[in-house]
Amino acid sequence: xxxxGRQHLEEEEIAAVVAVLRSDYLTQGPKVNAFEQAVAxxxxxxxxxxxxxxxxxxxxxxxxxxxxAGDYLWxxxxxxxxxxxCGRYCGASIxxxxxxxxxxxxxxxxxxQKLQRAKLAGNLPKIIVVVHFAGxxxxxxxxxxxxxxxxxxxxxxxxxxxxxQVNSDTVGSCRYSDMTIFSFHxxxxxxxxxxxxxxxxxxxxxxxxxxxxxxxVSRSDQDFCQPSDGPWYYEQQDLGFNCRMTDIQxxxxxxxLTRLPVFIERxxxxxxRYNHLLAGLxxxxxxxxxxxxxAWHLYVVELCGxxxxxxxxxxxxxxxxxxxxxxxxxxxxxxxxxxxQQLGFCRGDFPVAEAYYAQAxxxxxxxxxxxxxxxxxxxxxxxxxx
Length: 386
Ligand SMILES: *Cc1c(COP(=O)(O)O)cnc(C)c1O
What we know:
binds pyridoxal-5'-phosphate, seven-stranded mixed β-sheet, alpha/beta, globular, 12 helices
């Protein structure tokens, strides 16, 4: 079976894990510090805070920004459920933003109209989680100027976009956002097995995030609210969690980070090749805007014939799987999930995301995908479409 995504690891990662297992620190220790600094430096951010996974990164980001019951969090309708769930963990209400059919990212026009209405209704969002779908950066500068007008925080969900660039600014620099989160799940661009990280440029946010990932406990005496009882003293100042990354994971991540430029280059080659080989077929191929250099995470085509219902996505999906190609679908619009339906969302609420979803098909894309395998995928799809 050819999967839709897959990690690339070498003996170096295996040796790094073994070295940690022989060392004094298994969980959060020197490798976690080094990994945080390396990711922040790569992205051009001042601070990096590593956590147990991307979902925890989103949750802690929302908590550190003070999201609570009575607040609103908005995110793209075309994303993984975690981009919305983080708001629910904090007791906030969720709303969605319909997408731009070109980029499949949240639509700036839709957003600015929705903000206008929300201002009149008095229910402006506290946080907007901006997803860079498939690695294509969303227009974060435009969202920043809306945030200056309407006063919301921006959290970038860059689970797909490690290494993506806009006008030579790397995603994660937080030049136009409050925080950016990454995931290092094995299908993402680099992996630590499970893992996540938050980048930011505000030392108070970084401090808050570090506290929240470790039970809300502070161990530095200049932060204490009460007089210290002695050298053993620590203080729980907030209701935190255990969302720590282990040194085992960070050791993998440090080596994966050195491979990132090669991964991005290889993914770009494969995307260029797909674009070339699939041109002329009744498909909408992925596109990025001018000035944008995506680090491609997913390669999603839309099956749209001359009249849009020519191809049944289910038929094509099943036939590809039968040929040993594990295609996938990204994403079921989040508002269509039973959990969100029960909160009052309905089919038809975000029609562009729904129309996109009906025709979307994710083809295999990962550094070890060979050109032979890619030809096999392309030919299988061609046979079905022609
Ligand atoms: C993978 C992913 C997440 C969650 O990351 P985990 O590390 O799996 O918790 C969040 N948002 C998006 C868009 C993702 O693709």
